[in-house]
Fold this sequence. Notes:
alpha/beta; 15 helices; 32% helix
Amino acid sequence: MLPYQxxxxxxxxxxxxxxxxxxxxxxGQPHTHKAAAAAAAAxxxxxxxxxxxxxxxxxxCRLPRRGGPLTRIxxxxxxxxxxxxxxxxxxxxxxxxxSAAGSSGGGGEILHVSPPSPPANPPGAPVYVTLxxxxxxxxxxxxxxxxxxxxxxxxxxxGVAGVxxxxxxGVVERQGPGEYDWAGYLDLAAMxxxxxxxxxxxxxxxxxGAGPHDPLWIPLPKWVLEEMDKVPDLSYTNRYQxxxxxxxxxxxxxxxxxKGRSPMQAYSDFMRSFRNTFEDYLGAIVTEVQVGxxxxxxxxxxxxxxxxxxxxxxxxxxxxxxCYDKFMQASLSAHAQILGIQEWGSGGSIGIDGSQHNLEESxxxxxxxxxxxxxxxxxxxxxxxxxxxxxxxxxxxxxxTIFSGTGVTISGKVAGMHWHYYTCAHPSELTAGYYNTLLxxxxxxxxxxxxxxxxxxxxxxxxxxxxxxxxxxxxxxGTLRQLIGAAKMCNLPLNGENSVTRLDDASLNQVIRSSxxxxxxxxxxxxxxxxxxxxxSLFEFHNWSRFTKFVRxxxxxxxxxxxxxxxxGQQYLSSMSVVWVVSRACAYT
Length: 589
């Protein structure tokens, strides 16, 4: 056959006409002027539309099964929350046909087979990152704004699902009762939205740091501290009359001790103001609200000061019962009177003596003949732990009422007090308010209370291994297994956290192993992990490489691609290039 250029003029014209008609016939277009005019006069055929084009390389697409239901999908722009796409993209093959169905309606609609519904609990777990505690400074404004923007861009590029940050009571309501300043936190949420990151808001009703000498010192509001100075019993108190001002004593939850309001009313007003201020963010950007329930934001008593929990040598302490302020003493006395045993309702717990490090020297905690396993011990520990559960239930009830219908999940955090898990009495758990011993499950009542209000459970210890503990009585893995077991029994969504900020391979691999204890559930409950917390070392090259690998592994080995908004459109940036931007911004120096 002769090449096209060497053929005669008439033959080349005939070939062009032939190919043009064939192409138009395949596309359903008229190939004559008369046919075109007739087609223009005919009514539009909205029911017959072209099949959807193949997806671009950066968008995931799972081909539907043949014979699936037909749906009508209207064209819409992508939302910021849909910027992360796994790289396992399938392109439709030439043998795949998309079905089209007709119905009356306007043009511009694309009709094709709908994809299969996602599984109830997809594999993998989204990763969140907690921002620095002083992301919003004491003055209520975003600190190191330029560095924060670069850091959020880097997290988005790594495939992180979102960020978590505390909204400190001492910052928001610092000026006076009922005077709220949310400007800095609104700005931070807007920055997260620009980078396609979801937000977990932690309503922090506790202090941050060990004292004014601490660079991350954020106390309770000044007007609250003034009331605590006037009435010292508003603070948690131990048998030595040592006061703890990390959090207001739960013994006065319902008493008007804060300038005419009770602590519960103050917490309620704070939540309601947050809901009204962040109304446009709730459900879409702010997807979860974690309610602070005690020291460190955890549902517990301050049996050991928070700043000492991670210090070597101090975590082996048994802890102190925090029931010696007048409000807790009044509650204990009333509880004993109701049961008709008034002699057990005065003076606090019996048998608390001896060393704070050796439980066998304590009459209450020793294994053989300790008060913890006597009728008095059962009475006291049921009251002490019951007061803590009641405090958590009051907060869950308030949060459930305020955030109902907003599309956000409420959650609370339980501490991992693992230092005496391999003993009979579990003293560090008992003094923290968890009635968990060799003979009793102390975490199931807390999980049942959370389930009553459909709240998620947050807990730490995901990075800790029994093998690295020098104390043979400690078992972070055993504590975590019991917490996860309680969450499973109550079908609670679970948020895991690391207890120590580190990025070594052993710790990250332990997080992955611990996460598998809960992930893969078939009941529809969800699991996610929250890395605590972002700092300058996270963006160092070797740490960043480990972290991005960790995010992929937690997400079931799927590679995330993040689209970052720039002024001249949207483009893809590699994680390493964003880390360079962070380093140029001198993040958190």
